[in-house]
Amino acid sequence: MCCCCCCPPAISAIFCLWAQSGCSKSSVAGALTFFPPDPPLYEFERRDQEGNLLPDHSDDDENNTDNGKKKDTTKTGDTNNDLAQTEESADAGFDPSHRTGETEEKLQSPAQQLVDRAKDLRKQAKIRNARDAKDHQNSVKYRLKLDSRLHVPRYERNAVEAVKIPAKNGIYVAAVIYRISETEQGIAPHGNNNDKNNSKTKLETRQPKTIIYSHGNATDIGAMFPLQAVIAHSLDCNVVMYDYSGFGESGGMALEENTYCDIEAVYKYTLEHVANNDPKSIVLYGQSVGGGPCCWLTQKYQDIGGMVLHSAFTSGMRVLTPSR
């Protein structure tokens, strides 16, 4: 058995997380690599098929529910528990401040804090996945609600659509679609240009390009929405932004393999519902950590129209170390 008592706290924390997760390298990589904004800078309002607002249920509410009944978290109950623990600690000769309350949290080692955080994220992911699956079954609709701290440029509200896309791993991926109406462009007919019958320009509908934007770390589609609106109108194209698993309104946990399922689900949905089944009209945009899933997808679907990598990383170790 390996002993890490002499190791630096950070190394001990990583080792404990690796052991607690069943020697899962992906769990350790996810904890070190992904940092979702907390709290998110947006939320999805839930609405029924008639457009009526549905009550919101936070993950904390679900955690405090046991078999459909709220757990007793009243102040009186807490006081009784504290008194019982105080009497028990006094009999045992212990200081109760070392057993309960904030002191215990402060005295936790970095390793235990990291392990506890991973456990909480797994519990929240399970709750979110179950709720999203139920919403999908009941055809619940979503509406984007941005954080009041954001400075958002003027945009067409009717052009914005909030969706949760089911992925093959059971996770529902939160995405925001900004649609630009199809435009008409003039195309000269074939034949003699001097022919009076051919002098009129023929108009045909042009399928706009669609950008699937994979954002960087420590942000979400709420914070990225102002840029999404600017890109859509500046380039006259559709823009689809999505959150990785564990980010914002997306279910699941932030793991490398989940990001591949995320972008594949978003691509298939975009291809069918936005791009009229024309893969050549889709361009992937990967910023920072988003470059990874973009490269993975283009290797699998080589008929995609193009890819842009913005400040992409060259290796995972260079992200975690001062060396650049």
Structure, explained:
A hairpin with a 5-residue loop joins strand 5 (160-166) and strand 6 (172-178). Helix 8 crosses helix 9 (291-300). This protein has one domain: Rossmann fold (3-Layer(aba) Sandwich). 39% of the residues lie in helices and 19% in strands. It is globular and about 70 Å long. 26% of the residues are buried. The protein has helices at 9-20, 25-33, 59-63, 75-92, 101-107, 110-137, 221-235, 256-273, 291-300, 316-320; strands at residues 42-47, 65-66, 69-70, 141-146, 160-166, 172-178, 183-187, 202-206, 210-214, 238-242, 282-287, 306-310. The chain has 10 helices and 12 strands. It has a 6-stranded mixed beta sheet with strand order 5-6-10-9-11-12, with helices on both faces. It has a two-stranded antiparallel ribbon with strand order 1-4. Strands 2-3 form a two-stranded antiparallel ribbon. The chain has 324 residues and is of the alpha/beta class.
What's the SSE blueprint?
Elements: H1 9-20, H2 25-33, E1 42-47, H3 59-63, E2 65-66, E3 69-70, H4 75-92, H5 101-107, H6 110-137, E4 141-146, E5 160-166, E6 172-178, E7 183-187, E8 202-206, E9 210-214, H7 221-235, E10 238-242, H8 256-273, E11 282-287, H9 291-300, E12 306-310, H10 316-320
Parallel strand pairs: 9-10, 9-11, 11-12
Antiparallel strand pairs: 1-4, 2-3, 5-6, 6-10, 7-8
Gist of the model:
The protein has 324 residues and is of the alpha/beta class. It has helices spanning 9-20, 25-33, 59-63, 75-92, 101-107, 110-137, 221-235, 256-273, 291-300, 316-320, and strands at 42-47, 65-66, 69-70, 141-146, 160-166, 172-178, 183-187, 202-206, 210-214, 238-242, 282-287, 306-310. The protein has a single domain (9-51, 100-188, 200-320), classed as Rossmann fold (3-Layer(aba) Sandwich).
